[in-house]
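Hi there,

I know you've been waiting on this one. I reran it after we fixed the sequence typo, so this is the corrected version. Both the input and the resulting structure follow.
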Amino acid sequence: MAFDSHPPELELFIEKADKLENSGFVKKIKEEFTLDISIDLSREDPLNIRSIRPNQENIDAFILTFRFFIQDNEATSIRNLQKFFDSEFVTSEEKNKFNSARNNLNSFLSESTNLIFKDENISNQMLMDIFIYGELSHAKKSKKEKFDLWMSRDDAQEFFWHKFSHFCNQFNILRIFF
């Protein structure tokens, strides 16, 4: 970089990314993160789902910090950092590394979660939007309705929560950008 220290936005970006990496959410996923499904057709209720994942408090705390990277009203959002990396303050190599990481992130967001609900293939982006803006930090009407629809099926709830937890762990900001 063209200066001796990081600008405040990058300092905050690194601080928040480090906070996510050391969160109770990530610790829980590293310790034990399981989704076991068994089917026993001899039982009246043949489907048995056992899930171990971060609890709601871990998820809520993670999302509170995670929003620094995805909401454009934050200087640390990926979109806003793009403006910095497009400036004359960074070298071409740094700009290329950032753009490559951002392209990889956008590719990840467009990938399928391998979940299909009512004939709709759910991408990582959709999963993130529905959970965050339909339940965890906002309740935008259309997204809240979709979240409630996903959760209306007892046999599907844990699949969605597990996939969302996996998504959050895969979206690890430090691993993507540094």
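Quick highlight: The longest helix spans residues 92-110.

Best,
R. S.
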